[in-house]
Amino acid sequence: MTQIITKPNVVEAPEGISGEGYFLTSLDKAVGLARKNSLWPLPFATSCCGIEFMATMAATYDLARFGSERLSFSPRQSDLLMVMGTIAKKMTPVLREVYIQMAEPKWVIAVGACASSGGIFDTYSVLQGIDRIIPVDVYVPGCPPRPEQIISGILKIQDLVGNESLRRRNSEAYNELLGKYNIE
Q1: Quick check: 174 pLDDT over 70?
Q2: Could you identify which of 22, 50, 51, 118 might form a hypothetical disulfide with 128, taking C-beta atoms 3.0 to 4.6 angstroms apart as the criterion?
Q3: Looking at residue 150, which CATH number applies to its domain?
Q4: Is residue 15 part of a domain?
């Protein structure tokens, strides 16, 4: 039996100056590279989108390949809030509190039509998009979205995280955005 040895995939180095035995880059680039490849998602799943997320975590799609191995069910230990499924208006204080309890920096993905826009449920009891109560960074469309779409959303978040400045979260623009949501 012959064994085929393949060259492992190596993460692309950030911009910088390299030479024999050294590499120089900015702190923003190094921290961005570390953050984007070690996201700790908190799944807030309520319906069929949650089932698709489970498929995304399973062996066939294996979200762990993208640095999201550890799911965190504690808001204080996670940096990516993944809201999936129908959000009833009675759940909005809970979702908002989960978002507020997360430490900075934090990012949010709205997975599926219901979390993004209320979906087919245009009723008094269903929130018509989570962006009415918390800021959203990436929207994943679909009813329910396929695991490939969820992975695409994670890759978009990784691009955002990797290119984000360390000081963006302390900027006036970010604080103004949180002010619009009445979050201090």
Answers
A1: yes
A2: 118
A3: 3.40.50.12280
A4: no
CA distance 145 to 130: 17
pLDDT exceeds cutoff 70 at 2? no
- Report how many domains make up the chain: 1
Mean pLDDT for the stretch of residues 5-13: 73
Question: What is the separation of C-alpha 136 from the centre of its chain, rounded to a whole number of angstroms?
Answer: 9
Q: How far is the CA of 145 from the CAs of 5, 12, 110, in angstroms?
A: 36, 29, 11
Q: Is 27 part of a structural domain of the chain?
A: no
Return d(Cα 44, Cα 83) in angstroms, integer: 5
Helix H, strand E, coil C: the string for 87-147 is: CEHHHHHHHHHHHHHCCCCCEEEEEHHHHHHCCCCCCCCECCCHHHCCCCCEEECCCCCCH
Give the pTM: 0.83
Residue range of the domain that includes 110? 32-180
- 53, two tokens: 């997320």
The C-alpha atoms of residue 125 and residue 109 are separated, in whole angstroms, by 22
Q: Is residue 166, in this structure, part of any structural domain at all?
A: yes
User: Is residue 54 a part of any domain in this protein?
Assistant: yes
The answer to whether the bond into 43 is cis (omega within 30° of 0) is: no
State how far the alpha carbon of 115 is from the alpha carbons of 37, 56, 142, in Å: 25, 18, 10
